[in-house]
Each structure stands twice: as structure tokens, then as C-alpha cells.
Amino acid sequence: MKRDHSNASDGEFLECERRWVYWCLIAVAGWFGAYTFLLRGGVFCNAQTANIVLFAMAVGKGDMKGALYLLIPISAYFTGAFFSEYMGKSVKRLHFLRWDTILVGVETVAVIILGLLPESVPDQICQIALNFICSMQFNTFRQLEGTPAATTFVTNHIRQVGANLARFVRHRDSASKDKVKTHGAMIFFFFTGGAVGTVSGRLAGLPSLCGSACILLAVFIRLAYADRSYERNMLSRVPRGH
């Protein structure tokens, strides 16, 4: 029997909270990280811990030029978090598409444009844009079917696998086992995206970023379809974690 999505209860998850969405987004984030580090200035766009360390090292060595350079991706990430939080509440009033859906659509277009930029364009342009995008994505997609999850880095996913594996070994409970699988899958897809991004970057160069747009486009189409069909009456529902 075909499931009636329009009558979904509060206990069910929105399409933007589904596992497949998070797998796709974290794979894209791994692709972004490999791309910017390999081809666009040797910085990471998907998280800022490494950039903060490099920034601190530059300040410690008195390399103010290098420190200012690293402030570019850090500032872009900060701005992305602010913008996504503000726009998420504003877009909700339109009752047409979710902010989550619009974000993925904007991200798709931006990635294609960035991938087609010539080599003469300064690396900072791509760094700023991808840091901004990753920050918005991280701030927007927060829970994978009820489990807190990041779609731009894997530090917490690695911790969760270790902690829940220990609980499973001790108690043999199914909840810990499921969390190991959930966070382990996120690590796998992030790794896969980074590996594919590296290989494609070496083969195709700067335009290789456009490959990640194919994944984003598939996510956007599915989310937009959900918003305008079986989840049309649930546009006011807030995804878990917000």
C-alpha cells in the first residue's frame, strides 16, 4: 500500500531529515574540503578548526600577512552561520519551499559557477564562497532522523562511533549499535566525497567541482518535490534540532 505522506504524524521525519540527504550533503562537504585544499589555496572550507590552528600559528610566528589570509575563510564561515539563521526564519513565512530546500538549490548554482571560474580568479573568491556555503549547510541540517549530526565535518562522528561502540560492547543494546552505524555511515560518505573530489580534481582540475553539483541537484529536486507535494501541508513544521 502506498504511504500517505500528507497525513504524516508529528513522530515522522521530514524529507530534509532523512539519512540519504545527510549522506549526500556530507559527501559533498568532503568533496569541497579536498577541492579547496588541493586546488584553491591549501585551506579547508568545510570546518574551521584547522584554519584556527593555522591562524594561531601564523600569529605566533609574527606572520601577520598569513594570519590575515586565514581570516578570510574563518570570517566567511561566521557570516554563513549568521545569514542562514536569519534567512531560515524569514523564508518560513513564504510557505512555498523550506529554507533547507532553497539552500541546497542556491548551493547547486553557486558550486557550478565556482567550478567554471578560470584559474586567474583569486583563490580567495572560491574560499569565501565555499566557507559561506558550508557554514549555512552546517547550521541548517542538524539532525539525521532524530540523531544530532553534522554535514560538513566528521570529528564528532568519530567520537560518537568510539563512544557508542564501547557502550554496545558493554551492554549489547540496539540503540548504541544503531548509532555506531549512523555515525559510521557519515564518516564513510565524507571519506568517499573527499576521495572522489581528489581524484576528479587531479583529472579535471578546477571544473571538477561541478561534479558535486550533480549530487546537490538530485537532493534539491527531491526536497522541492516533497515541499510541493506530500509535505506541502507541513511547511511550517520545524526540523528537529532547531
The average pLDDT value, as a whole number, equals: 90
The major β-sheet equals: 2 strands, antiparallel
How far apart are the termini?
33 Å
Catalogue the unreliable spans: 1-10
What would the principal axes of the Cα set say about the shape?
A: globular
Helix content: 55-70%
Secondary-structure element pattern, one letter each:
HHHHHEEHHH
**Biggest β-sheet: strands ordered side by side in the sheet:** 1-2
Q: How many strands appear in the DSSP assignment? A: 2
- The DSSP helix count reads 8
Q: How would you classify the helix and strand content by structural class?
A: mainly alpha
Tell me the fraction of residues in β-strands, as a range: under 5%
> Cα-atom Rg, whole angstroms?
19 Å
Topology readout:
Elements: H1 19-39, H2 49-60, H3 64-92, H4 99-115, H5 123-140, E1 143-144, E2 147-148, H6 155-171, H7 174-204, H8 210-228
Antiparallel strand pairs: 1-2
Helix pairs in contact: 1-5, 1-7, 1-8, 2-3, 3-5, 4-5, 4-8, 6-7
Provide structural commentary:
With about 240 residues, the protein is mainly α. It is built from eight helices and two strands, in the order αααααββααα. A two-stranded antiparallel ribbon has the order 1-2. A hairpin with a 2-residue loop joins β1 and β2. The longest helix is centred in the C-terminal third of the chain and has 31 residues, at about 175-205. The model is unreliable at about 1-10 (pLDDT under 50).
